[in-house]
Amino acid sequence: MKTKYIFFLFIVFLLGLNTKAQQKDTVIIDKLIEQCKQSELYSSDSALYYAGKALSLSQKINDSIRTAIVYRRMGNVYLNIGEVSKAVEYQNKSLKICETIRYKPGIAACLSNIANIKTAQSLNNEAIEYYQKALLLFLELKDKKGYARALGNIGLLCQQMKEYNKAVSYQVKSY
Q1: 93, 102, 138, 134: which is closest to 116 by C-alpha?
Q2: How far from 44 is each of 57, 76, 80, 86, CA to CA, in Å?
C-alpha cells in the first residue's frame, strides 16, 4: 500500500513538472510569435526565423492553437513579400487546424487573411465572400475590432469596384 502511495505521488510530481515546462514553453512561443509579428513588415527573414522557432516548439508540445497562429503569421509574411502561393498554403494550414479543433477566433482570422490574399490577386468578389464569412464569426464572437476591420476592408473593395454607395455604407458601419 505504501509503495502504491509513493508511486502515485511520484506520478503527480512528474505531471506537475511537465505542466510547468509546458507553461514555460507557451510563454516562449508567445514571445516568438510577437517577435515574428513585429518583424513582418521590415524583415521577412527575421519574421520567418521567429516563426520557424515558434512552429517547432508549438508542434513539440502539441499546441494546436499556437501552431495555427504561427502558420497564419507565416502566411502574412509570405503575402507581404509577394509569395502568394505560399501565403495561401500557410493560411490554409492554419484554417484546417482551426476548423479541426473548432477554434472560431482562428477561423475568423484565417478567413479574413484569405480575403486579403484574394484582394491582392484582384479577385474582389471572392475576397468579399471571405470577408463576409469572417464578419459572421467576428459578430458571433463579439470581436469588435475584427468586425470593424472586415467591414472597412469590404468598403475599400467596393470603392475599388466603383460601387461608391456600398463603399460608404461599409466604411460608416466600420466605425
Answers
A1: 134
A2: 20, 10, 8, 13
Q: Which one-letter amino acid corresponds to residue 33?
A: I
Residues contacting residue 47 through CB under 8 Å, at least 6 positions apart: 36, 37, 39, 40, 73, 77
Residue 122 carries which side chain, given as an amino acid letter? S
Inter-CA distances, 89 with 64, 126, 175, Å: 17, 17, 32
Query: For 117-144, what is each residue's pLDDT tens digit?
Result: 999 999 999 999 999 999 999 999 999 9
Residues 6+ apart with CB under 8 A from 141: 104, 105, 108
Q: Buried (b) or exposed (e) across 62-86, using 16+ Cβ within 10 A?
A: ebebbbbbbbbbbbbbbbeeeeeee
One-letter amino acid for residue 73 of the chain: R
Q: How far apart are CA 51 and CA 111, in angstroms?
A: 20
Q: What is the pLDDT of residues 32-83, one digit of tens each?
A: 999 999 999 899 999 999 999 999 999 999 999 999 999 999 999 999 999 9
Which residue, among 99, 60, 62, 61, has the nearest Cα to 72 in the 3D structure? 99
Residue 91, CB half-sphere, CA atoms under 13 Å: how many? 24
98 grid coordinates: 482551426
* Entry pTM: 0.84
